[in-house]
Amino acid sequence: MMHVKLTEANSSPSIFEEQNDIVKVSGYAVHEGTFNDITVTAEELQKSVQSLVGKPLLVNHSNNTTSVVGKITQAAVGVDPTNGKKAVAYEANFDAAEKDILRKMQLGFLDSTSVGFGCDHICSICGSEIWKCSHWFGDDGFQLLAKNIEFHELSIVAVPADKDATVKINFSAEDAKRFEELREQKEKIRRTNMSDFETKYNQIVDEFNQFKMDKVDEINELQAQFKAEKDELQTAKADKDTEIFALKNEIDALKQEKDGLMSEVEELKATFAKIEDEKLSSLRTQVMELSKKANFGLTEEEIADMGEPALNRYIEGFSQQLKHMVKIEEPIKEQDVHQYQEESSEDVKLSESLTQRLTQIRG
After folding, report:
1. Are 123 and 85 a contacting pair, CB within 8 Å?
2. What CA–CA distance (Å, rounded) separates 149 from 120?
3. Helix residue ranges per DSSP H, the chain
4. Which CA distances in Å does 96 have to 1, 20, 114, 308?
5. How far is the C-alpha of 58 from the C-alpha of 156, rounded, in Å?
6. What pLDDT digit, counting tens, does each position of 214-273 carry?
7. Are 165 and 82 in contact, with CB atoms under 8 Å apart?
8. Residue 321 neighbours by CB under 8 Å, 6+ apart
9. Cα–Cα distance for residue pair 270/277, rounded to 1 Å
């Protein structure tokens, strides 16, 4: 018994050895993907794979007895190593008497299969059957999903839609008619909707154009008013900018004048402090001189921190005391003794009073 793998037929040119009139054939019947507008998922293939077992192996999906060349004996879902996709792998018994087909398979002229199946046709957007929903090809996210797949046959074909195994949606006659009627109905609705849309769009454009014509005088008036107000605002802004610029210049001038006055004030303060120090130094010198004349015994440390009022009080006190001090410059005559004693007594009292006052100032 010979085992022929269709996907390797092109590289297996050996002569078939028949045994019991059967040749084993294997390959991939269908892969996950979208073919002829219908999407087949790996999940649905797994659910339906066993329905392929026992189904006939045909040539070109021809539904007559002479087209039957074998029967599917095994089927399972696996990964096709040539593309990494999930696929239905099958094995079939092939009639060895079909020598012409076998020769073409051996030469690689026939190396593809196509599966026929029935299914429910589900909208990927709403999940309803396509007969019951409003979605269709061209809608965002729309796919026609194959659900509840039932395999009918597997055929050897010359030109596949799937490069590894073609897929034919094998509707029943009734379903095929319904599908075509549905396609025509939905496309007609969409054409009608598009026509309605274009009519409404044109109507809106016409209404808008008429509105613009009706409002053209008002629009022109508003535009003129807007321009006048804009010009007025720009003029006012220019005037304010000029005023602001003048104020800034005035502020800068005042700042410079202030800085000059502050410098002048600092110079006057320094001059005044110098004059004050010289004045106090002169007063302290007078006080020390008068203190020595009055034998009062003041020291420079005692008057070092005194201000002008205190120094003036010392000067006044010392001056009065020195004015009344008794100076004996010549002998006193006998007849003036009595008068001298009286005047001396008064001067001594005054001197004592001044001394007490100076002592109070000192201390």
Report:
1. no
2. 7
3. 42-48, 99-107, 173-214, 216-293, 300-303, 308-323, 337-362
4. 10, 9, 20, 145
5. 6
6. 777 788 888 888 989 998 898 989 988 998 999 899 899 999 989 999 898 999 999 988
7. no
8. 294, 351, 354, 355, 358
9. 11
The neighbour count for residue 25, using CB atoms within 10 Å, is: 26
What pLDDT, on a 0 to 100 scale, did the predictor assign at position 192?
A: 73
Burial class (CB in 10 A: 0-12, 13-18, 19+), 149: buried
Q: Do 59 and 121 meet the contact criterion of CB atoms below 8 Å apart?
A: no
Assign residue 36 a region: left if phi > 0, alpha if psi is -120 to 50, beta otherwise? Answer: left
Question: How do beta strands 112-123 and 22-31 pair?
Answer: unpaired
* Helices 216-293/308-323 angle, 10° precision: 30
Task: Please tell me the distance from the alpha carbon of residue 32 to that of residue 189, in angstroms, as a whole number.
Answer: 32
Domain map of the chain by residue range? 2-170, 300-362
